[in-house]
Write a sequence for this structure.
């Protein structure tokens, strides 16, 4: 059995075949799917999906690419959503910093990230971190706030060995997805030198499909290709990959498994 710790399956990309996609994922041994939120517009459909499929778990947060003009108002709304139904959400995110798409809202992104760190601390929930072109910045912010009561995942880890070890030393896990199957990305070489005991699997569906589906819509059943590549990199059986990464995910999202 495998756990997909990061999938946006509530998006319109899955409107035509959601039931079939989820059936395929279960046939491939995906037992749980964790859904990070994007912004206020995606909360309702995410929660509808969670109510329909109990093995799909909602999280609440504001994606850094959506931290723009009305960030303070959006954060207040998200705080209220969490306060009104704390047990509905498995974690906080997806949050973090994105220096790839637009540098006009750097200050808003940092504000939103730190506000969501506070939410994670006060709610005792894990935080899911987006760090595109900003890994040192996000590590530094977590380091500033880490007092032993923060945990979570650095989603789509693609950093250096040194950065990976910094993340692990902070008590966080590395989200390993389809990028490790990309021939020239270089992530595979770094991941091969980091401990499996600090890794979880993710798809980021509908994005970042692994080989042999690169360039096509990603879906949760494709997690098996990432798991197989990780098995090859770590020179262990697929069963070991399943056991350790699932144990790690259960450690992060323990409240979702204790219900």
């Amino acid at each position: 059995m495998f756990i997909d710790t990061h999938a946006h399956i509530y998006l319109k990309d899955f409107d035509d075949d959601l039931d079939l996609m989820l059936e395929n994922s279960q046939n491939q041994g995906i037992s749980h799917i964790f859904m990070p939120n994007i912004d206020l517009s995606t909360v309702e459909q995410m929660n509808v999906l969670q109510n329909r499929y109990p093995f799909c778990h909602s999280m609440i947060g504001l994606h850094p690419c959506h931290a723009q003009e009305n960030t303070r108002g959006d954060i207040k709304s998200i705080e209220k959503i969490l306060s009104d139904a704390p047990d509905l959400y498995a974690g906080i995110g997806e949050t973090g910093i994105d220096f790839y798409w637009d540098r006009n809202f750097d200050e808003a992104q940092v504000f939103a990230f730190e506000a969501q760190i506070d939410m994670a601390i006060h709610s005792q929930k894990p935080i899911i971190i987006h760090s595109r072109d900003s890994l040192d910045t996000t590590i530094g912010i977590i380091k500033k706030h880490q007092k032993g009561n923060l945990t979570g995942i650095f989603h789509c880890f693609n950093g250096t060995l040194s950065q990976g070890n910094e993340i692990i030393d902070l008590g966080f896990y590395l989200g390993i997805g389809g990028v490790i199957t990309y021939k020239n990305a270089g992530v595979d070489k770094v991941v091969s030198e980091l401990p499996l005991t600090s890794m979880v699997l993710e798809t980021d569906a509908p994005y970042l499909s692994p080989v042999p589906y690169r360039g096509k819509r990603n879906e949760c059943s494709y997690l098996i290709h990432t798991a197989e590549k990780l098995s090859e990199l770590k020179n262990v059986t697929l069963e070991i990959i399943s056991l350790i990464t699932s144990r790690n995910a259960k450690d992060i999202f323990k409240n979702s498994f204790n219900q």
